[in-house]
Specification:
The protein is built from 16 helices and 17 strands. The chain is α/β, with parallel strands linked by helices. The protein has 3 domains: 118 residues, Rossmann fold (3-Layer(aba) Sandwich); 68 residues, ATP-grasp fold, A domain (Dna Ligase, domain 1, 2-Layer Sandwich), CATH 3.30.1490; 157 residues, D-amino Acid Aminotransferase, Chain A, domain 1 (2-Layer Sandwich). Helix 4 packs antiparallel against helix 6 and helix 6 packs across helix 7.
Length: 424
């Protein structure tokens, strides 16, 4: 494990011994959720230590982190990194995972970690039940939430019977997004339109996760995707919540939210709370739904539990201090008063995804420049691009753009030069 420490490290250790303000340890900084979480907590005066798999990632240029700890071995090296870090945290710290895998590792090793770290994470069984798409389906049906027709495959010999029984089109995704899944597939899910595609996909995917989920495709475009985002406190009471609607996703149809807007859909608040109340849940939870085109029917898609999601920025945009609420709940500090939607129809944007989604929609003639600008009008917050974090803006956006433009220009110059030489 390698560490990179700023000149503010002494202040960090001094604050860590205070009962009022202890550090937050964010893992991982080198993803969008970790970067945004670090900014939010830092702006509330909370010292932030960040763990990163790739300390050269442009997100690690942020000025809102006081110390970065490199963990090259990723999830497997988390416990060792936290153990070593604990020696410099006499007053303890709040551990903030940003992926499902990290939340599960932390929950599984709760007894070991809670000697130093405070965590807003449900117990291992609850996380597994809600986070495993195969297991949560049973609970969803039990509480009366609509669910797309769903099949699971865990062995090669189960593929053909499923192909014979299912109705196209379908979505294929893992029950749990393992490292093997991300390394091989590199997408959270994908759509299947033919039986030949389905057979090829399942042959490739079986074995990459405990089971593979094959689910009915619910008709509707990306704006038919909705989500319930909340923080449930240690006393199992909902301390902050909101409902959002995706404007665009990337990749389109089966990707993650590129831009979203807060909406009022009481039905989703009710059924989501019913689902969570049926478990011993504590911490962050995001439940995704899809509305079938032309109806008011919402279908459960998946739950992301134990950590903030890409929609952390939407809560902030709406005036809800959801991330700060988590920290205060863990440290017995007074909870923020900003725990309800103050700015209705506020929006959030992940610019790296948004620009790709918009470009694709424009090429497909599904979106105009005016339509795009109008869709983002009003109050909004970016998850990845902040002008008050200039090193990240330069390294993550401007520098790559300049380098791309320079390469294109040199390519043109070489082409002109070569053409002139042949003419002579």
């Amino acid at each position: 494990m390698n560490t990179s420490t700023s000149t503010m490290e002494k202040d960090l250790y001094k604050k860590s011994s205070s009962k009022e303000v202890i550090p937050a340890v964010v893992a991982w900084l080198d993803n969008n959720v970790g970067l945004e979480l670090s900014r939010i907590l830092s702006k509330h005066g909370i010292p932030v230590i960040a763990l990163a798999v790739d300390v050269k990632n442009y997100r690690c240029k942020t000025r809102f982190v006081q110390r970065i700890v490199a963990v090259p071995s990723g999830d497997k090296g988390l416990l060792q990194a936290l153990d070593e870090l604990s020696h410099s945290l006499p007053g303890g710290a709040v551990f903030c995972p940003t992926t499902d895998a990290l939340a599960f590792v932390a929950s599984k090793n709760r007894v070991r970690l809670e000697q130093t770290y405070r965590m807003a994470i449900a117990n291992e069984d609850t996380l597994e039940m809600l986070g495993d798409k195969a297991q949560v389906s049973k609970l969803v049906k039990k509480v009366g939430i609509s669910l797309p027709q769903t099949w699971t495959v865990s062995a090669v010999e189960e593929i053909q019977p499923l192909i014979d029984a299912c109705t196209l089109p379908l979505i294929v995704k893992p029950s749990v997004r393992t490292d093997a899944w991300w390394t091989t597939i590199r997408e959270k899910a994908f759509r299947i339109d033919t039986r030949a595609e389905l057979e090829n996909a399942l042959q490739k995917c079986v074995g990459l996760a405990p089971s593979i989920i094959v689910q009915e495709w619910i008709e509707g475009d990306d704006s038919n995707m909705f989500f319930y985002h909340s923080y449930i406190g240690r006393d199992r009471q909902c301390l902050a919540e909101l409902v959002g609607q995706k404007l665009r996703q990337w990749p389109r149809r089966t990707g993650v939210g590129a831009s979203s807007v807060q909406v009022d859909v009481p039905k989703l608040n009710q059924i989501s709370r019913k689902l969570l109340d049926s478990t011993d849940f504590h911490g962050f939870c995001e439940i995704e739904y899809k509305r079938r085109e032309g109806t008011d029917d919402y279908y459960f898609i998946e739950a992301n539990v134990g950590r903030p999601s890409l929609h952390a920025a939407l809560a902030e945009s709406c005036g809800i201090e959801m991330q700060h609420t988590m920290y205060c709940d863990c440290t017995d500090m007074p909870l923020p008063e900003a725990n309800e939607v103050k700015y209705s129809r506020a929006k959030s944007v992940v610019w790296r995804f948004e620009l790709q989604a918009v470009a694709r929609a424009w090429l497909d003639k599904e979106l105009t420049l005016y339509g795009w600008i109008k869709s983002l009008a009003g109050r909004s917050r970016s998850l990845d691009l902040h002008l008050d974090d200039p090193a990240v803006v330069w390294a993550g956006f401007l520098q790559p753009a300049f380098e791309f433009s320079f390469k294109k220009m040199m390519s043109v110059i070489r082409g002109v030069s070569s053409s002139s030489g042949k003419t002579r």
